[in-house]
Design a protein that fits this description.
The complex is a heterodimer.
Chain A: H1 2-29, H2 34-39, H3 55-63, H4 66-96, H5 103-114, H6 118-131, H7 138-142, H8 149-161, H9 164-172, H10 177-185, H11 190-205, H12 209-214, H13 223-231, H14 238-268
Helix pairs in contact in A: 1-14, 3-14, 4-8, 4-11, 4-13, 5-8, 8-11, 9-10, 11-14, 13-14
Chain B: E1 4-13, E2 16-26, E3 31-35, H1 42-50, E4 57-62, E5 65-66, E6 77-80, H2 92-102, H3 107-121, H4 136-148, E7 154-158, H5 166-183, E8 186-191, H6 194-200, E9 203-208, E10 211-216, H7 218-223, H8 228-233, E11 240-242, E12 245-249, E13 252-257, E14 260-262, E15 274-277, E16 283-285, E17 297-309, E18 313-319, E19 324-326, E20 334-336, E21 340-346, E22 356-362, E23 367-369
Parallel strand pairs in B: 3-8, 3-9, 6-7, 7-8
Antiparallel strand pairs in B: 1-2, 1-4, 4-5, 9-10, 11-15, 12-13, 13-14, 15-23, 16-22, 17-18, 17-22, 18-21, 19-20
The chains are: A mainly alpha, B alpha+beta.
């Protein structure tokens, strides 16, 4: 019994190490002098921070407009998450609760769109927006991603699980559809909103292809383009690149830690107890 | 205050007809109970009145005004749901205030009404708590409070007591009755619990398959059920239903009821097919004196199958000498070959299992039903 437990934990630990190693390598590498990062990469010393210094971080801010990249990323993702929560929640609610012609077909369509990778429609979308003359700003990086089939589906299944009587009570009490949504449904769907916010943010924080196609000015380019640009900027400094990586991952980690409680609840539960 | 009228109301969900066509008037200030097994259409009727469902056909009027084209908001009704449907994100005060806010009522007036309702229902100490922090009984009271603050024309209650334990149910049942009489608001109350129906209703409508089987005062329904379904649905244990055999022998009508042939009891109608006897109509007779031959009484001999001791009385189940008819939820009576006769008897003398006993009931207390299960002397309005 004990042996089995030990073996199970050893296995779990091994898997954990495999997955966490690159992240540790990045964090520790970002604190080391550049010449040691690759030199120690093949040994366990890669994971030992011998001489800690913030030099690499300072270099990131000196060599590229990191603040501008970060601001662009925050604005674009803020738009996607903010507008996305509203639009996708409306869509999910309409599919789950309202009765309208073509509802079933629309639900099928949403599910079908779920499996189409973005790369497949990137070029047509690029031509469409170029034809409209819409390029090179924050909005164009955000608007095409506001409506998200996965987010709609997450909201849809969450709303299906909400007790219908709550909404019926609100209607009998005199609330219309919008007030029922904002005053009764929304406050009881915090878990769903948190999950969708995290999903949308994670999806788009690392977005590369679309900003590459649509932007030319440094001022509107997001972090993934920034780090790509940084790679190509001589001299090639691995310590600096690691520091850039850490800075890029940090907002995602913070967001996840803050919302983790709701995220887990949102994924685990489909209902609210009265 | 208002009366409520259903005129030829029909409701179908796709091909499934839930209410085939129903007429019903609920008088102003009356508490009418819709009673029936699950799926009989009673909740659908309530939801049609609330405006949560649309009738396929027919007309609904509240206070003489047709409301079919109006949404729930415009009907001025309040509803208490089975699971209370309290808004979990709002405090008790917020819940009570919600319908008033939705109507754009002024703050001072809202506050006054909420306090008044809270005081009437003993909710003042929990006004700032959320539903999750309340007991079942308190939640039920909040749901009631949310209905009364509105001062609506009609109350709708959809099995409001079914989530409470037995003791609390009795207490809140009485509170609902008192409150309804005090406010005098027309009330439609849906339940499948016959005791709730009998104790609360000014009138009771027993429903089955979307059709009202009988409508009347509770005691009338109990004493003169219109058909086998109502007879079997009201009463605990329900009415015993027997299927006597009738024959003409040597020019005389003879009947087998209770195991032996004899002269039928006096006043038995020609079309009688089923005989119904309430458990409390039976009393313990002298043994060895059996047979249906006596014209003024029915006598049944059998052996005791089980005894339920209730303290001041006992329910005795007797193995019946002939098939006892059981009423099913489906169309027509179904036969239960091994049916038992139930009798409500005093606590003494003590009866043992398998003991042979004779039960006797006055012929005048036997209910007679024809082939279709319709009572041959019913107590409709």
């Amino acid at each position: 019994m004990l042996l089995r437990a030990v073996l199970a934990y050893a296995l779990l630990l091994a898997f954990t190490l495999v997955f966490i190693a690159p992240v540790l390598f990045m964090i520790i590498g970002s604190l080391k002098p550049d010449e040691l990062v690759l030199a120690e990469a093949g040994s366990l010393r890669a994971f030992l921070p011998e001489s800690v210094s913030p030099d690499n971080y300072r270099a990131v801010f000196e060599r590229v407009p990191f603040g501008a990249y970060l601001l662009s990323s925050l604005i674009v993702n803020g738009l996607i998450v903010g507008l996305g929560l509203l639009v996708n929640a409306f869509a999910g609610y309409a599919l789950a609760r309202l009765r309208w012609w073509g509802r079933e077909a629309m639900l099928g369509l949403v599910l079908a769109v779920l499996v189409i990778p973005f790369e497949a429609i990137a070029i047509p979308l690029f031509y469409q927006l170029s034809w409209l003359g819409w390029r090179d700003d924050w909005l164009v990086q955000a608007i095409p991603f506001v409506a998200n089939p996965l987010a709609i589906f997450l909201f849809y299944s969450f709303f299906l699980g909400l007790p219908r009587e709550l909404e019926e009570a609100a209607r009998v009490d005199g609330a219309g559809v919008l007030r029922t949504f904002f005053l009764v449904v929304l406050p009881n769907a915090k878990a769903a909103f948190a999950s969708v916010a995290i999903v949308l943010f994670l999806f788009h924080w690392g977005m590369y292809l679309w900003p590459l196609l649509m932007t030319t000015s440094e001022g509107v380019r997001p972090l993934p383009l920034g780090i790509a640009n940084f790679y190509t900027l001589p001299p090639l400094q691995w310590g600096d690149i690691m520091a850039f990586g850490v800075l890029m991952v940090l907002p995602v980690l913070i967001l996840f830690v803050v919302f983790q409680r709701w995220f887990v609840r949102g994924v685990a539960s489909t209902g609210v107890k009265g | 205050m208002a009366d409520v009228e259903f005129r030829a109301v029909r409701k179908a969900f796709g091909d499934r007809i839930v209410i085939p066509g129903l007429d019903l008037t609920v008088h102003d200030g009356e508490l009418l109970v819709l009673l029936g097994p699950s799926g009989c259409g009673k909740s659908t009727l309530l939801r049609l009145l609330a405006g949560l469902e649309t009738a396929t056909d027919g007309e609904i009027r509240i206070g003489g005004r047709p409301v079919d084209a109006l949404g729930p908001r415009a009907r001025n009704i309040a509803m208490v749901f089975q699971n209370y449907a309290l808004y979990p994100n709002l405090t008790v005060r917020g819940n009570l205030e919600f319908p008033l806010r939705m109507r754009g009522m002024r703050r001072a007036e809202r506050k006054r009404r909420v306090l008044e309702a809270a005081r009437a229902l003993g909710l003042e100490p929990v006004l700032e708590q959320r539903p999750a922090e309340l007991s079942g009984g308190q939640r039920q009271r909040v749901a009631m409070g949310r209905a009364i603050v509105r001062e609506p024309d009609v109350f709708l209650m959809d099995e409001p007591l079914s989530n409470l334990d037995a003791r609390l149910r009795v207490q809140i049942r009485a509170e609902i009755g008192t409150l309804q009489r005090r406010l005098g608001v027309t009330t439609l109350y849906v339940t499948h619990d016959q005791i709730e129906a009998m104790t609360l209703g000014d009138r009771v409508a027993v429903m089955r398959d979307g059709v009202i089987q009988q409508l009347g005062r509770p005691e009338a329904l109990y004493e003169r059920p219109a058909n086998l379904f109502v007879a079997g649905f009201l009463g605990s244990p329900p009415m015993n239903l027997l299927e006597p055999a009738l024959e003409r022998r040597e020019g005389q009508r003879m009947m087998r009821l209770g195991g032996t042939w004899g002269q039928p009891p006096a006043g038995i109608p020609d079309r009688a097919r089923y005989a119904g006897i309430r458990p409390e109509s039976f009393s313990l007779g002298a043994n060895g004196n059996s047979g249906a031959a006596r014209r003024d009484r029915l006598e049944v001999q059998g052996s005791v199958h089980a005894v339920e001791v209730l303290g001041h009385e006992r329910i005795v189940y007797l193995r019946a000498p002939e098939p006892v008819v059981a009423v099913s939820d489906g169309p027509g009576p179904s036969r239960s070959v091994e049916g038992l006769l139930a009798a409500r008897l005093p606590a003494s003398p003590v009866l043992e299992r398998d003991e042979s006993v004779t039960l006797t009931a006055p012929a005048a207390e036997i209910h007679w039903f024809d082939e279709d299960g319709t009572a041959l002397s019913a107590g409709n309005e």
